[in-house]
Each structure stands twice: as structure tokens, then as C-alpha cells.
Amino acid sequence: xxxxxxxxxxxxxxxxxxxxxxxxxxxxxxxxxxxxxxxxxxxxxxxxxxxxxxxxxxxxxxxxxxxxxxxxxxxxxxxxxxxxxxxxxxxxxxxxxxxxxxxxxxxxxxxxxxxxxxxxxxxxxxxxxxxxxxxxxxxxxxxxxxxxxxxxxxxxxxxxxxxxxxxxxxxxxxxxxxxxxxxxxxxxxxxxxxxxxxxxxxxxxxxxxxxxxxxxxxxxxxxxxxxxxxxxxxxxxxxxxxxxxxxxxxxxxxxxxxxxxxxxxxxxxxxxxxxxxxxxxxxxxxxxxxxxxxxxxxxxxxxxxxxxxxxxxxxxxxxxxxxxxxxxxxxxxxxxxxxxxxxxxxxxxxxxxxxxxxxxxxxxxxxxxxxxxxxxxxxxxxxxxxxxxxxxxxxxxxxxxxxxxxxxxxxxxxxxxxxxxxxxxxxxxxxxxxxxxxxxxxxxxxxxxxxxxxxxxxxxxxxxxxxxxxxxxxxxxxxxxxxxxxxxxxxxxxxxxxxxxxxxxxxxxxxxxxxxxxxxxxxxxxxxxxxxxxxxxxxxxxxxxxxxxxxxxxxxxxxxxxxxxxxxxxxxxxxxxxxxxxxxxxxxxxxxxxxxxxxxxxxxxxxxxxxxxxxxxxxxxxxxxxxxxxxxxxxxxxxxxxxxxxxxxxxxxxxxxxxxxxxxxxxxxxxxxxxxxxxxxxxxxxxxxxxxxxxxxxxxxxxxxxxxxxxxxxxxx
Length: 717
What we know:
The protein is mainly β. The chain is built from 6 helices and 50 strands. The strands form 13 sheets. It has a 9-stranded antiparallel beta sheet with strand order 33-34-35-36-50-44-43-38-41. It has a 5-stranded antiparallel beta sheet with strand order 40-39-42-45-48, with no helix packed on it. A 4-stranded antiparallel beta sheet has the order 3-4-5-6, with no helix packed on it. A hairpin with a 5-residue loop joins strand 46 and strand 47.
């Protein structure tokens, strides 16, 4: 499985569920059902387990789907060990994340949105229960919480807040945002627990990707990059910051990605992870490195590391490094001696570990352990013995048939041993033949695991909007050279464009054969017909992105245009303009265009969604009967009397009001397009539909044909 953190492009997700006859406790044959996709989505998710400093309590987050809001809500749970009943500790409407124990175990810091705050804030709650209190009230969202050794402060990462000038421009709706240019650096901060005072600890033209505080609080290991953009990770390096005198020591200088920097207990070495070999050349697997805290050559800790390292930390005595690593179809905990290089495997089983954390004072590990029958309960490793701490998922194996899993091995083309996982079908009998479905992953670092069978296949699309994929990628279909030919029909003439997008272009699977035909008719209609086929399953959502101003090019803004959108619902988005996965009613909002309203009438209203889009930049859900071409929108320019109607057979239409036009676009006859000098109406499937199964599917399978029609009809009143 190729791993991606891309919000938009988690695509090609398949769930294969089979069944098997079994015997019930009632001593007669009874069949357990296989899991459906809905059953799978309804499973709770357990993550981020943390052991208390005294080792007698456990906190973790437990998430469950909220189908009404179409999102998963996480809350913090606590359990007294070993046999106490788990109970819910927090109840915020928006959920909570990142629980972190104070040094004395009396409080837990966590992140949540409350009181209509659009940003996560740091909250504190007593381990005895009661109401949580807000510790921060920032214009940005903190992440990566770490308590100071003395418990008086919490360190965190957060973006630099907006300047007063930026806030002013935002109020004036004059804040054009270009992600590749207008991002904010992320820096290290701390907040004092007693009074909530916040101090910025780092500043400068760089971004901190991660950090680790020394056990005495005097130094911090920092992984910093030139920017928060994805590609800048190759220019990232490891530094040590002395907090007492604000001095920096650079420890690495290469063109590889590093991560997980941590100071040794005696303060002499820094541990980090890099996907490099000993000469810091690009390497597929992540390796362990140590470097003197005073600087010098970084040393590859284990020359013949047989695993790909996921996370690592120092042991309590500093004589070894503990790490979580991929080992074929499994993931396990290991330790390696420093400097002995003696390698020891600490866990061994048909499982996948996640959410790992280590308590040095207890020499204890906690992690979620996913197996063939358990999605991931929490286990403890201490004194060489393992014990299960939660039983959240006992019901799964009791309720559903789950397939038998078996590891198989074969020799690859490069003579390396390759592992795979064989899932047996229901009613399988030895000696019989069954159809075999083969699912390959993208390698080389990621792989499927012997774990709970949430069978998924991901492809990594090109990212061109931060961590997201937008408008087809860096070189989308709009930037490709298409073949063109003239076409004619009765009462109309047009041009037919065709293009073969090869397998893997911008990350998309399959050879995509596309054709778009533009027709101009004597009825003053621009008709656009889209067609496409593929030889591999892929996602496709084509649209037309022309800008319109019915008063004429260069005539000024479009705020007096009257708009009707025949849609009862629209798709709300988050602060990054990513759909939230739900549909909101337009009733009683500035998004209600069921009757005519001018664009400028409500675009300046105080509304969270208008603020997110810097105006209108959302997908409306067309009130469709499903019977072909239907009227989706009507726009009237009242001075000229010009009218444009938009008809389509698609379920959605994106309405955009030129919020990011800044005068840099020059059209025909030298006309300059400024802020809100034009609008767009784009017929389409819903944005981000690959990640939202409740939306109309954008998946195109081999043997299917993609068809889409849009008509722009022009008239006068």
C-alpha cells in the first residue's frame, strides 16, 4: 500500500468482504454475516494511547461516526489499570485530540474547538474529572503538545498569526490567497499553565516540522525546513536549540528528509531517522542515525538494517534505541544497542502496531495492536511481558465472519523476498479451487499488514495545493496539447478535442481516452459534451472553467448580476477550502439563490462559509430529477438585459465569484480582470468525492463511459 496524506487523492479504495459457516454456542449451525462497507465505517477508531506517569491509568481517543454531520468525532477516554472500567472523559461537540499527561499526572492537556472557535485550542482537564478549561485563545491552531519537565508550561507548534494589516485586508475582502506564496511559517511556542501567557520561542524565515524537548528542558531538537510546502522536506535539517542562551547548532547538511530528532538522556548525541544510506544518498527504507550534539558526521547506526523504521526513541538508560519498524507484512518493536549494534526484537506476532509511545521512567511501551480479528486495542509491554489494556473491539470477532489470513512469500525480480497476504474465502475447502483477486501496493516503503482486513489500495496523485491535489495536478488536462478537428451539424458548428492521458500522468492510474466537443448553435447556445474511457479504475471529474461578465469584458465587477441557483443544498468547506463531507441547507443563509439575488447583495455578510471562500466559491447540489439536462442556474445582468442559463446532467455546480482575481490576468484587447470582475459556473461531480462515499461517485471503471453535458444558453430580456 503506497501511503499518502493527501486529503483529496485517497482514491481507489476497495473493501473485499467474504463469509464462512461457523458453529454458534447453541450447538447448531449458524452463519455470521460478513462485514459491509457501512459496518466497517461504523467501527470505532482507537488511537493515541498514553500511559500515566505512575503507570496506573491510560488515556486514549475513541472516535465514532456521526452520520448526521457526516464526520468522525473523537473523544478522550480514561481507564484505571489493570481492571477498571473505561469511561469517557471529554464531551465536546467538535471532539478532542492529542491527550497529554502532566508530569505529576494530575491534569491532561488536549486540543479541541469549543465556544464557536474556528481553531483548535489547548485545554486542561483534571484527571478527577469536571469541566475542562481553556489554556490558550490564539488566532492559530496549536499542534504537537509537550509538557515541560517541571509541569509549569506546555510547548507546542503553531503558525505565525496574521498581521494587523492582513486582518484588515481580510475584513475588506481584499485578501487574495495563493497557497504557494502566502503560507505562514510554523514555529515553537510555550504557554504557562498558571496564567495562560504565551511566548514565541523561535522566529525566522523557516518552518518547524517537528521538535523534541530534552528531559531537563534545557534544549530542544528541531527539524526545520525552508517552508511548510511538501517538497521543501528535502531541504530540511536537524538543529539543536539551547533554550537558555538561544544558540543554534546545525547537525545535518544534506538533501534528504529527516525526522524524529531526539536528544540522548546524557545529552551527548541526537537520534534521527532518514530515508538515506550511510552516504546520505536516496534510499528506499528509513534508517536510524546518530550525530554528536556538538556537530560532526552523522553515523548510520546499523549498516544492514533489515527493516524500515517508522518511529524511534532512546531507552531510559541511553544504551539502546527503541524503534517501531515494518518487517514484511508485520510491524513490530525492536531495540538496537549503542554502540554495540546488537539488534533485539521486542514483539513478534501476526499484527500491525500503531500509536506507539514509550514511558522512560517506567521502561514501558503502549501501542494499538491490529490483528486479523481486532482493529486495534491497546496493549502494554513492560518487563518483557505483554498485557492487553482495552477490550473495545471484542464484539467484532463475536459478531462478524472474518477471513483467515496467511503470509505467503516469493522471490521478486531483484532476488529479494516479497511477502504477501492471502485471504481465504468463505466455505474454502482444502484441495478445491477458488478465484483469486490480486491487489498490489505501490511500494517500496508501504505495505499491507497482517492486521484487521480493511483492504485498501491508494494512489498518490501530484500535490499542487499544499498537501492537496487540485485541478488535475501540476500539469492538468487544461495544460496539455489536445488534437483538434472541426465538426459541423444542423444549425451548429464546433470543434472536437481529443487527448490520451497515459497511465500514471499526474499520478492517475489507467490510460484515459478523453474527448470534449464544443458546439455553437444558432439558438445562441454553447454546448459542451465530455466523453472518456479508461483501462484502469480511476477518478474523473471534468468541468468548464470559463469566466463570465454579462456586462462585457473589462466593464467592472459583477456584483450587480442577478443569480438564481436551483439548489436546496450546498457543500460547506473547511479553512483550506476542502469539503467537510456533508451537505448544508441554503435556507436562511447567503447561499440561498432559489429566488434571484444580486451577487453583491450578501457577499459581504458575516458568514463563516463566505469567510472561508473569500466570497462564493462552493458547490451547489442541483435539485435534479435525474432525467437528463436540467436547469441549474440563471444569471441576469440588469443593465444590458443579458441572460445566461446553465443546463447540465451533472449533480453539482460550482459558483465562483472571482475572489482571487487581482489584476494580473489580461484578456482580449488588453482588458484587465480585477477582484470580482467575473464569475464562473462549473457543472461537475462534487469536489473531493473520492474521500466522501456519500457524494455521487466520480469513479470510472474499465468498460464504463464517462459522459457529461453542459449547455450555456444566452438570451436577452
